[in-house]
Design brief:
With about 80 residues, the protein is an alpha+beta fold. The chain is built from 2 helices and 3 strands; from the N terminus they run E-E-H-E-H. It has one domain.
């Protein structure tokens, strides 16, 4: 039991971005995958099924990456509103 490390798997997230008419965006984890191939397949499928102009999908390698993207977009929006 001691001395064994848990196998670290990289988690890939397919993030769904929904843009609203009031220029706000919401982000959700649409799918979680443990390989780039699986994540890409999920994203391609979601893109093909998407029939709304207000939704888009992108890949993130981990929660920190997704949160960095969300925070960056939020900060840009706030900065633009204050101009």
């Amino acid at each position: 039991m001691f001395g064994k490390k848990k196998e670290q798997k990289k988690v890939w997230l397919v993030i769904e971005k929904i843009s609203y008419s009031d220029n706000t965006d919401n982000f959700y984890v649409a799918k979680k995958a443990y390989s780039l191939d699986e994540a890409t397949a999920f994203k391609v499928s979601l893109d093909q099924l998407n029939d709304r102009d207000t939704r888009s999908y992108f890949l993130a390698t981990d929660v920190d990456t997704a949160m960095d993207k969300v925070i960056t977009l939020h900060n840009e929006k706030v900065a633009n509103e204050n101009k």
